[in-house]
Write a structure and sequence with these properties.
By secondary structure, this protein is α+β, with helices and mostly antiparallel strands. The protein has one domain: 2-Layer Sandwich (Alpha-Beta Plaits). The protein has 5 helices and 5 strands. It is globular and about 40 Å long.
């Protein structure tokens, strides 16, 4: 262990000996104070292939979400190699993991370019939002992704974004 002051040594020990997750936890969403759960999800392509930002791909993905009715999709941005979306459970019967697995499977079977297979990484990342402000802040950040990646000069110019269902908390 490096030579550190006692307090830093304790923090170093806690960090080194804390198990680091290799996969996301995918905890079940929790409804708070009667407000529906809203979950922020990021799904990446296999080997981060830049195959998603086309009209045909977007249409396939949106149709897959329409087929997978267990969760509602709110705002989303489809980047060349990943998707950011906000979703909420439509019923209690299907886990987030099961829903994502289902729509990825549907999209893969209907994919417009068979040579792109495999389409998806096996897993995904999710974070449950805790308040209205975090939804607005996350959306502002996500909406700016195409600009930060140099794909457009303004978020409104990116054609692979939208909103299917309005996901809002009753404040």
């Amino acid at each position: 262990m490096p030579a550190l002051a006692p307090r830093r040594r304790l923090l170093y020990y806690a960090y080194v000996h804390t198990p680091q997750r290799k996969r996301p936890a995918h905890r079940a969403p929790i409804e708070r104070d009667g407000r529906p759960a809203i979950v922020f999800v990021t799904v990446c392509t296999a080997k981060r292939k830049p195959i998603l930002a086309t009209s045909a791909s977007m249409q396939t993905i949106v149709q897959a979400w329409a087929t997978a009715k267990s969760w509602r999709v709110g705002r989303f941005v489809i980047m060349p190699d990943h998707i950011h979306l906000f979703c909420a459970p439509a019923n209690d019967g299907v886990s987030l993991r099961g829903w994502v697995r289902f729509w990825k499977s549907v999209a893969s079977r209907r994919w417009p370019r068979p040579t792109d297979q495999p389409i998806w990484q096996l897993d995904f990342w999710d974070t449950q939002l805790r308040r209205t402000e975090s939804y607005a802040a996350k959306w502002h950040y996500v909406r700016g992704n195409p600009v930060r990646h140099g794909l457009v000069s303004r978020p409104e110019e990116w054609p692979y974004a939208g909103e299917i269902d309005v996901l809002a908390w009753d404040v």
